[in-house]
Amino acid sequence: MAQNYYDLLGVNKTASDKEIKTAYRRMARKLHPDVNPNDDRAQNQFKKVNEAYEVVGDPEHRKDYDQFGDNWKHADQMRNMGGGRGSSPGGGMGFNLNDLFGGGGSARSAGPRVNNNQGGFGDMFGGTGGQQQGPAKHKGSLDISLDEVYTGATRRISIGNSSNGKRNLEVEIPKGVRDGRKITLRPDRNTEVSLTVNVRADKRFTREGADLRAEIAVPLLDAVLGGEAEVPTMTGRIALQIPAGTQNGRSFKIKGRGLPKQGSDSFGDLYATVNVRLPEYLTAAEQDLYSKLRSVSSVAEGESSGGDDE
Question: Is 3.40.630.30 the CATH classification of the domain at 5-57?
Answer without folding.
Answer: no
